[in-house]
Amino acid sequence: MAGQVWINLPVKDLNKSKAFFTEIGFSLNEGFGNADDQASLVIGDKNVILMLFPESTFQKFTGNNISDTTKSTEVLFSIGAESKEEVDEMVAKVVKAGGTIFGQPNDQGWMYGAGFADLDGHRWNLLYMDMSQFPVE
C-alpha cells in the first residue's frame, strides 16, 4: 500500500454504486476487497483506490455519523483529465450512469472543469489544466 491513496466512502446500495463507478470508467480492483460488504475500484493509473462500504459498515469503523450529502459536502474529490474532451466524455458517462451534474463544464482559459455527484451525493470534480495558459501576474 505504500504510496497509494485510498478513498473510503459509505454508500446506500453497494451494487448500484459499484455499477455507477464502473460505468463512468473506474476499474474493479480484482486483487482486493470485492465482496458482499465492500467493493474496491481503481481510479486512473495513479495508485488511487476507491473503497465502497454499506453505510452501516462504514459507520462501524469510523465511529461517526454518516454525513447527509443532501445538506452538506464532506469532501470534494478532483480527478485530472488529459483534455477538455475527456472532461466532456466523463460528464456524459456520469449522466448516463445516473449521477448528477452540479457544475456544468466551464472554461476558464487555462482550466476546464465540471462537477458531479455520485449516487450517494459525494462530490467530484473533473479538471483539465493547461499550465502553458496559466495566468502569470
How would you portray this structure in words?
By secondary structure, the chain is α/β, with parallel strands linked by helices. It is 23% helix and 35% strand. The protein is built from three helices and eight strands. It has helices spanning 14-23, 55-62, 84-97; strands at residues 5-11, 27-28, 39-43, 48-54, 76-80, 100-107, 111-117, 123-129. The strands form two sheets. Strands 1-4-3-2 form a four-stranded mixed sheet. Strand 3 and strand 4 (48-54) form a beta hairpin. It is globular, with a radius of gyration of 16 Å.
Q: Which structural class fits the helix and strand makeup?
A: alpha/beta
| Radius of gyration, taken over Cα atoms and rounded to an integer in Å | 16 Å
Residue fraction in strands: 35-45%
Outline? globular
Low-confidence stretches: none
Helix % is: 10-25%
- Give the CA-CA distance, first to last residue: 40 Å
How many DSSP H or I helices?
Answer: 3
Q: Strands across the major sheet, in which order?
A: 1-4-3-2
Count of beta strands = 8
* Major sheet size, sense and barrel closure: 4 strands, mixed
